[in-house]
Design brief:
Helices cover 37% and strands 17% of the residues. Helix 1 (7-18) crosses helix 2 (24-31) and helix 2 (24-31) crosses helix 3 (35-47). It is flat, with a radius of gyration of 20 Å. It is α+β, with helices and mostly antiparallel strands and 142 residues long. The protein has three domains: 7-47, Orthogonal Bundle (Arc Repressor Mutant, subunit A), CATH 1.10.10.10; 60-89, no CATH class; 92-140, Ribosomal Protein L24e, Chain: T (Roll).
């Protein structure tokens, strides 16, 4: 038996391809349907086997390790999975000045978003520069 995907199913899949971490609420706002509709359609696509898993895509350039990087790959359901060394660290650039963050980052949290900064000055400058955008995101998430 075949099942024809409609516009809502296709819009849901396209939204998740862009970012599979989105909440049902975020997807519902993006594709202009209710949150329960998104949840029901998502579960239907999972049950039909269209969506097998939601997996992260790693930026391997941002990962470095203190010791040697374990490049062992493990096969799992026809997918190659990278095994990570326990000494892996992440290189995070400052979201304002783009310099490397050498110590503990200063973090700005708003509307399920986190931004990382090398210092509190960059965080403050970023907040001032994007004040309207941040307020709009906060209001949209309510």
């Amino acid at each position: 038996m075949t099942f024809q995907l409609d516009d809502i199913d296709i819009a849901l899949l396209e939204s998740l391809v862009k970012d599979g971490r989105k909440s049902f609420r975020q997807v519902s706002r993006e594709i202009h349907v209710s949150t329960p509709t998104v949840k029901i359609r998502y579960e239907k696509l999972v049950n039909m086997g269209v969506i097998k898993s939601v997996s992260p895509i790693f930026d391997m350039k941002k990962l470095k390790t203190v010791s040697n990087f374990d490049t062992t790959k493990v096969r799992n359901e026809n997918h190659l999975i990278q095994k990570f060394d326990k000494n892996v660290t992440v290189k995070i650039p400052c979201d304002y000045c783009k310099r490397k963050i050498h110590e503990k980052p200063s973090i700005l949290k708003f509307a399920n978003i986190q931004r990382f900064f090398c210092c509190s000055s960059c965080r403050t400058l970023y907040r001032e520069k994007y004040k309207k955008r941040i307020e709009n995101l906060i209001n949209a998430s309510k």
